[in-house]
Predict the structure of Helix-turn-helix domain-containing protein.
Amino acid sequence: MSEFSYVLSRHVHGKNIKTYALAQYCGLDRSNMYKIINGKRKPTSLEMVHKMARFMHLSPAEEQELEEAYQITLTGYDNYYRRRDVMNFFSEFNLSASSLTSFKYRTDQDVDMKETTVLASSSKVKQALFHIISAEMGRQTDGHIRLLIQPEASFLINLISAESQADTRIHIEHIICLNNNSETTQSQKNYNLNCLKQILPLYGSCPHYECFYYYDDISARTGKVTLFPYMVITSRHVCLMTAELDRGYIIRSAASLRMFSDMFADYRKASTILLNQINSVAEQLSYVENLLRECGTGFCFQMTPCFTPFITLSMAEKYITIDAPARSAFIDRFHGYIKEMNTWQEQGKTACIFSYDGVRHFLETGKINEYPKDVYLSFDMHDRVSLIRRLIQSCRNGHYRMLRESIGNVEHELYLFVNQQNGYLMFSSPYTRQPVYLNIEEPGLLFTFYDFCENLDDNMFYTPEETEALLNDLI
């Protein structure tokens, strides 16, 4: 019995539905309806599923359950939940300063810590973490925090990525365990994607944050039988903790600090970097060019469409700021980049996915968030309209596709480019307002994002004719 037939038969029997009447309403004969109820056949469309729900007088929650069961039956359990979790990953992303927890560091209030301090409760652990992180953030030079802790330890993640943390000197190394147990994945939906979601604020708030990963069975790694799986090392302290962060102890001796620092260095060598940060506009342009040259079939997923292929040389000269470093050379470099983008677009190997709200946001602001705001001026209204007209032409060619509804917040957007071998995420730092480019190194995440884009339902998109009419009306 399929997931859909299980849910459907439960409603049919629970509400005493007459199978013949249900079949007639849905335009089927009785034998085919019995096959659907028994899991030997699937409904021919989502519309038929909604017909069944209306006939059985299902509540909105019951109808949603039936539709979800239908999607699971079509795509499979793992595929359905993985794609749903990616949808939520983008929909819920909102890395703005107001969305982050704010802490005020108080380095003048010391915590009574001996050579070894026992932390016998959750409050003691949090107090100690607050103290040692605060003290390290307050160092004038050589601040260094090393974390061996899973991203679901939200108190510590929020503490480090808090709004008051704008220190560009602190160096943070973070080692996490990614899950390789498929059975656990079904009970903890896409654990690895959730890890990524939790650490993204650290990339936005800490310029020198690096995350490394290794694979293991996450339930065994952080289970209750593991004594002290978590560790935080600063310049003066080592803190060992349980997975629940409810017990632990702090060590201050120099010998212990050296030993645990050496252990962390060994773990670091055995781990792989999760996301590689791209730190300058020049590096960004070279990176994307190389990506496009090597690109097979891929997807550009951003609600504000990629306007770069439509920018002319005269626009570059007009909008790149006068005080941009080596301005003439940069304009020439940028123009070459645009030509590369045009070649890439003409090949038609990559689908560019965007939304109506994203176009409207650009029309209102004139901002292209892929680039730092201090290197260009906002486009004037005439050129905004010109770029959107060029976008419409690419929609006619099928290179760009417009979603019926935005996935995520266009004002605090998470951008994605992905093919089967490479990809990157991009968002604006809530502190510096500069774009943060992160090359995705972990193959499982690449597959997860690629699979999501490749399997977006056609019903989620406007047709080229609808897109052209809507955008012409907008401008």
